[in-house]
Amino acid sequence: MADESNEKIRETVRNGYADVAKGKSKCCCGSSTSDKFAEGIGYTNEELEVLPDGANMGLSCGNPTAVAGLKAGQVVLDLGSGGGFDVFIAAKKVGANGKSIGVDMTAEMLGKARAGIAKFTEKTGLSNVEFRLGEIEHLPVMDNSVDVVISNCVINLSPDKPQVWNEIARVLRPGGKVCVSDLALKKPLPEAVREMVVALVGCVAGAVTIDETIKMAEDAGLVNIQWTAKEYAVDVMEDCNDQLYQSVKKALPKGEKLSDYIVSVNVTAMKSMGEILSTKQKELIAIGASVTAHCQSCLTWHLDKARQAGACDKETDMALSIGKAVGKGSASVMESFIDEQRGQCVKAHESICQRNG
Question: What are phi and psi of 124, to 5 degrees?
Fold first, then answer.
């Protein structure tokens, strides 16, 4: 039942954003005056100048590319890339040796984004942009392949946010960074708003508290989690002429505004460098180090831990042998290496003799 409910939410969101891509809906998580709104939340004229026509649809609630501190040569992944707004901006920052990838589940948005690639290349001379069709809960991206993950007012649309954070941790390289701009709850929304389809598509009904977001990032194994509130006018959403926010505005209690319930936040986190090694690998290394250090209690401890982590006898024996060899010093290791190479040469010579009779 949960899977069926989640798919229904995804379909609702997909249809809503398809309408935005087709121009049937003018605003969602933003303003009908897209350039002015983008400048108001931290985008510069220089950043906006590289955009193809139609990429900026006013769907932002922050500037994750600025928070990420992108560097030349990095691989950047944008979750829910829409018309390519942040993907194109990121591509300019990472340069010709970097890559900027966008993932979106809405075919209409993907078509709009891909249509802008040629114009972006014409403006910048760069060919480092790619857009992929997919859900942010199941990213079409390899493990440990991305330096920076960004997302702009999208994760709140997901019906399975913990899975999104798990996917972020999976695709990030050890030491990689995630920078998310999103909406967060100050206090629970009125029930009437929570049940509105337009509030869901408008990035409002799916919002959670910052504490919930931090816990999801922690549970995914991310570290150094930080956040800041963006005190920009959330009320601009209510000024849209689109049905989206007019309906939400009418559903709020008298005298209250959307900004009484919602705030824009930037969340950053890192993938630990230690993620590149499994527990078993770490314990096998510790076995070798214990032998080298001549610490019997350490060795007993790490042998037990390695077996608990799934290490077989052959693996622990190899770790013991390496530790013993290293403990004897570099001269001993070189002597063993030479003997091994000589043995291989003798075997090769014997093999040749046998073939030649």
Answer: -115, -20
Domain interval for residue 327: 277-355
294 in the same domain as 254: no
242 with 296, same domain: the answer is: no
Please classify residue 282 by burial: count the beta carbons closer than 10 Å to its beta carbon, then call 0-12 exposed, 13-18 middle and 19+ buried.
middle
Strands 262-271, 172-185: pairing kind: antiparallel
Q: Give the best-scoring range by mean pLDDT among 9-13, 98-102, 349-353.
A: 98-102
Length of the chain: 357
Looking at the 3D structure of the chain, how many domains does it have? 2
Of 171, 77, 194, 168, the residue nearest 131 (C-alpha): 77
How far, in Å, CA of 95 to CA of 79, rounded?
Answer: 20
Q: Report the C-alpha gap between 233 and 139 in whole angstroms.
A: 32
Structure letter (DSSP) for residue 239: G
Nearest alpha-carbon partner for 126 in 173, 76, 166? 76
Inter-residue contact 53 to 81 (CB < 8 Å): no
Residue 157 has pLDDT above 90, yes or no: no
For residue 350, give the CATH number of its domain: 1.20.1290.10
Query: Are residues 144 and 99 in contact, defined by beta-carbon separation less than 8 angstroms?
Result: no
Q: Running DSSP on this structure, what letter comes out for residue 202?
A: T
The count of other CB atoms within 10 Å of the CB of residue 257 is 14
Banded pLDDT at 62 (limits 50, 70, 90): low
Are the beta carbons of 87 and 118 closer than 8 angstroms? no
For 304-319, letters b (16+ CB in 10 Å) and e give ebbeeeebeeebbeeb
With CA atoms as reference, report the closest residue to 129 among 75, 159, 91: 91
Which amino acid would we find at residue 197?
V
Strands 222-230 and 262-271 turn out to be antiparallel
* Nearest C-alpha neighbor of 356 from the set 348, 226, 69: 348
Residues 283 and 244 in one domain: no
3-state SS, residue 172: strand
Q: What are phi and psi of 336, to 5 degrees?
A: -65, -40
What lies within 8 Å, CB to CB, of 79 at 6+ separation is 103, 136, 139, 149, 150, 151, 154, 155, 164, 168
